[in-house]
C-alpha cells in the first residue's frame, strides 16, 4: 500500500511540476513579448526625433532655395523693367533729336 501511495504522490508531484513548468514558460514568453514591445516603442521614439530633425532641415533648405529663386526672379523682372524704361527714354530723346551719351572705344 505504501508503494502505491508513493506512486500516487509522485504522479501528483510530477503533474504539479509540469503545471509549474508550463506557467513558467508562459511567463517567460510574456516577459519576452513585453521586452520586445518596449524595445519597439523606444526604437520608435528614438526614430521620430531624427525624422523630425531631417524634415526640419529639408524645410530650411527648401526655403533657402525658394528665397534664392525668388530673388533671381525679382532681379530678372527689375532688369527687364530698367531695359524697358531705357528704351522708352531713348525713344523720347530720339523724338526730340537728342540721344544718351555713349562713350565709344
UniProtKB/TrEMBL annotation:
It comes from Equus asinus (Donkey). GO terms for cellular component: axonemal A tubule inner sheath; sperm flagellum. GO terms for biological process: flagellated sperm motility. It comes from the Eukaryota. The lineage of its organism: Eukaryota, Metazoa, Chordata, Craniata, Vertebrata. This is Cilia and flagella associated protein 141.
Amino acid at each position: 500500500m505504501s508503494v502505491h501511495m508513493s506512486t500516487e504522490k509522485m504522479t501528483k508531484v510530477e503533474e504539479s511540476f509540469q503545471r509549474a513548468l508550463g506557467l513558467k514558460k508562459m511567463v517567460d514568453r510574456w516577459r519576452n513579448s513585453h521586452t520586445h514591445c518596449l524595445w519597439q516603442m523606444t526604437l520608435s521614439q528614438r526614430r521620430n526625433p531624427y525624422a523630425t530633425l531631417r524634415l526640419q532641415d529639408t524645410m530650411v533648405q527648401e526655403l533657402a532655395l525658394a528665397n534664392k529663386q525668388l530673388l533671381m526672379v525679382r532681379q530678372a523682372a527689375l532688369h527687364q523693367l530698367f531695359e524697358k524704361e531705357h528704351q522708352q527714354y531713348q525713344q523720347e530723346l530720339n523724338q526730340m533729336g537728342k540721344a544718351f551719351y555713349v562713350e565709344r572705344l
